[in-house]
Every structure is written in structure tokens, then in C-alpha cells.
Design brief:
Blueprint (H helix, E strand, L loop, with lengths): L19 H22 L3 H31 L3 H38 L10 E9 L7 E4 L12 E3 L4 E8 L4 E5 L6 E6 L5 E7 L6 E8 L9 E4 L11 E9 L6 E8 L8 E5 L10 H4 L21
Antiparallel strand pairs: 1-2, 1-12, 2-5, 3-4, 3-12, 4-5, 6-7, 6-9, 7-8, 8-11, 9-10, 10-11
């Protein structure tokens, strides 16, 4: 056998490449660079949107057996449960009828006060119906995914409600689906108003093993707040429309060594198990029209004391 035909290259076992430490350093630097680029420049947002759009048919197909089983279970609901639901609905209808009689008088008084104070009449927000598909996979946050996205006109920051109250807020929008962060998430906060006292505050999400809820932080121990008080949206943030039910105070703990009370609240919305929601457009706070715009240039000088706060009475 000729010696020239022999393979003189070393076996693969003796081939030396980059060391394991060098590879670790290089790949760690690349990972940090990609994380900083995604945080600062949002370079992976189109990739996420594309992946979400591609995986949506797969998600829909996987959910079909679950929805079929749920539909079959609902079909075999007993007649007794249906009659109980009808009785409860009739009871709630009677309560709403009683409240509607009072609402007409309150609405008339409210209209007269707004005309007297020259306040702009509020316009209703448009709403988009959506269905909850599943809970988000992140175990450290409380989020759900709905079947409406950019193609349906959904915008990030939009409030989400159900039939009982505020559920959360749109925090991420994809072409066909959107992600809703619930009120009980620790990163969520919502301005609220105590309907009994008229005091404004901010409710923060507080998930826990004993029960998810909301906390009213930095409330003085001497504040007038009691168990059972209803909290609604105050509307000062320009995101949530005013008057939406948010939560009800369940416990107020006052300690002698602390200047603040520990206030625990229970959300009125169905945080666990809700199926259908409404997505509202964020409310916008517009400044009132200037009095000079509504009066001609030859109008008489206004009386002292009638100008809005912060405006000069000079002509």
C-alpha cells in the first residue's frame, strides 16, 4: 500500500477548538446584548408579533377539544340549576328596576348641575366584545389572552371590564390576540374613588397564596374608611372612565405603631373564570374651552372672581 494514500490528519479527538470558558463568555455577551437591544430598541417586537400570528391557528386548534368538552358539559346542566339562575336573574332585574327609577332623578339633577357649571357633557366610550382564550404562561404574573388584536382596532392601554367591574388593562397587542394584565397583578395600579366619602386613592394589585386582591397603600389610620365601602374608578388618570366598579373593602387593620392603615379590597370583577369581556377605549381628558373663544372681541370685561382658577381676570 503506497504511503501517499495514508490520511495524516489527526483524529477528531485531538482537534482543539475554542475553550468552554471562551464559548460561555461569548454567548453570555451575545445574550446580554440581545436583552438590552430588546429593552431599549424593541427589536424583537416584530418577531414576537409574527410568531404569535403564526401560532394562532395552532392555539385555536388545540383549544377546540377543550371547548367541545365544555360545551358538552353545559348541555347536560340540570333543570334545577337553570330555574335557580332564572330566579336570581328576576331578582336582579327587580333591583335594577328600582335603581332605574332613582337614576332618572339623579340624571336630571346631574344635567342641571353640569349646565350650571358649564361642564362638558361626557360622551360614552365605544366598546369591543372579546372572549378569553387562556391564561398567560408566566407563573409570576396574572394575565389572560383574548381573541382580539390589532386587526380588530385594539390598542395598548385600553381598559378591560366584565359584567361586574374593571378586570384589567391591555398591556400587549398582537395582530390577532391581545394580552390583558389583571388588576391583581403586582405591577398594576388603578386610581379609585370611595363612593361613600368621596376620597380618592390608588389601589395596587396584591397576589397572595391566601387570596388575590387589592391594597390601598399609604392611607392614614385616621381616614374615614370602613369594611363594605365601594370603590369605583375616579377617572383622574385619563385611562379608565369614571364610575366603573373596581372593588369593595373587605378589611381595615389599624396598628398603633404605624401611621398608615392596612386596607384589603376584593375585586368585583370575576378575576378567575371570566369568559367574555369588553375592551374600552382609553378616556381622554380635554381642557375646558376658553371663555374668550366663546365671546366676541367686543364683549364687556368679565366680573372679578368669575374667572377659572389659575387664569387672570385682565382683559
Amino acid at each position: 500500500m503506497p504511503l501517499g494514500t495514508l490520511d495524516r490528519t489527526p483524529p477528531p479527538f485531538f482537534k482543539q477548538g475554542p475553550s468552554a470558558l471562551s464559548k460561555l463568555v461569548v454567548f453570555s455577551a451575545m445574550a446580554l446584548f440581545l436583552m438590552v437591544a430588546d429593552l431599549r430598541f424593541r427589536v424583537t417586537v416584530p418577531i414576537r408579533a409574527t410568531v404569535a400570528a403564526v401560532l394562532y391557528p395552532v392555539q385555536w386548534l388545540v383549544l377546540q377539544p377543550v371547548q367541545a368538552v365544555s360545551a358538552a358539559g353545559g348541555y347536560f346542566t340540570s333543570l334545577h340549576a337553570a330555574q335557580a339562575g332564572e330566579a336570581e336573574a328576576l331578582k336582579r332585574l327587580a333591583e335594577q328596576a328600582e335603581r332605574s327609577l332613582q337614576l332618572e332623578q339623579i340624571t336630571l339633577e346631574n344635567q342641571r348641575l353640569r349646565e350650571l357649571l358649564a361642564m362638558r357633557e361626557r360622551t360614552g366610550n365605544s366598546a369591543t366584545g372579546a372572549q378569553v382564550l387562556y391564561d398567560a404562561a408566566d407563573p409570576y404574573s396574572r394575565k389572560v389572552v383574548i381573541d382580539r388584536g390589532q386587526t380588530h382596532g385594539i390598542e395598548a392601554g385600553s381598559p378591560v371590564i366584565d359584567e361586574s367591574g374593571v378586570l384589567g388593562q391591555i398591556t400587549r397587542v398582537y395582530p390577532l390576540v391581545s394580552e390583558v394584565t389583571l388588576l391583581i397583578d403586582r405591577d398594576q395600579a388603578i386610581p379609585v374613588l370611595n363612593t361613600r366619602t368621596g376620597v380618592r386613592s390608588v389601589a395596587y394589585g396584591q397576589p397572595s397564596t391566601t387570596g388575590d386582591g387589592l391594597d390601598l397603600r399609604y392611607t392614614l389610620a385616621s381616614a374615614d374608611i370602613a369594611e363594605g365601602d365601594l370603590l369605583t374608578t375616579s377617572g383622574v388618570d385619563g385611562v379608565y372612565p369614571a364610575g366603573l366598579p373596581v372593588a369593595r373593602v373587605t378589611s381595615v387593620t389599624r396598628q398603633a405603631e404605624s401611621s398608615f392603615a392596612r386596607i384589603r379590597c376584593e375585586p368585583l370583577a370575576r378575576i378567575n373564570g371570566t369568559l367574555h369581556v369588553l375592551v374600552l377605549r382609553p378616556s381622554t381628558v380635554e381642557p375646558p374651552p376658553s371663555p374668550s373663544a366663546a365671546q366676541p372681541q367686543t364683549a364687556a370685561r368679565p366680573l372679578v372672581g368669575t374667572a377659572a382658577p389659575g387664569r387672570s381676570n385682565a382683559p
